[in-house]
Design brief:
CATH superfamily: P-loop containing nucleotide triphosphate hydrolases
Number of domains: 1
Distance between the termini: 15 Å
CATH topology: Rossmann fold
Radius of gyration: 16 Å
Structural class: alpha/beta
Mean pLDDT: 94
CATH architecture: 3-Layer(aba) Sandwich
Shape: globular
CATH class: Alpha Beta
Strand order of the largest sheet: 2-3-1-4-5
Order of helices and strands: EHEHHEHHEHHEH
Largest sheet: 5 strands, parallel
Number of strands: 5
Length: 214
Amino acid sequence: MNGIFLTLEGGEGCGKTTQLERVAEALRAKSGREVVTARSPGGTEVAEKIRIILKTPEPGENLLPETELMLFGACHAQMCEHLIRPALARGAIVISDRFTDSTLVYQGCARRIDPELVARVNQFVCRDTRPDLVLVLDIPVELGLQRTTGRASGTAKGDRFDSESAAFHTAVRNGFLELARREPGRFAVIDASPSPEQVTQSILEAIHARLAIL
């Protein structure tokens, strides 16, 4: 049985973290298969250490866009080798909260690094490991930022990406929608504005329609 690789993508506050566990639980129950969850940045011991650097503001020294790109590349290399590929080889369903399409959007579109360079970095670190289906949780920027306000209040140092400008988050949203427009066979756009239960149902319907695994 071949493994299946799914990713949840979208801007800040779109509900990916909530949906990761909800969808994973539903996939386990409905498919009877092993389901492995991951997150980017993170997922392995080394990648989780990289996550701290990427997500935590460092007073007096901002991360350069180029530094972000290389750190995300290192994270994805670790994830592929030590988490994703072994699980896929076992025939598992892997579902990740973000992956390389976030790098294309955040560092390519929003940070304005040459998208071709970003794509080459992704190819170098991941080789042939690509999601079978990318589920973009789309939400108006204003609503997403409202949701992150409460999240940030519970974090001692905040989140570097939550604190970016509305223009940055708009570029992120537009970047994901453009990727989905260019590759409709690999992407499914999900309205993330309704209740978590409704969003989960929409995600599961998209997975069934595209991959027929439920």
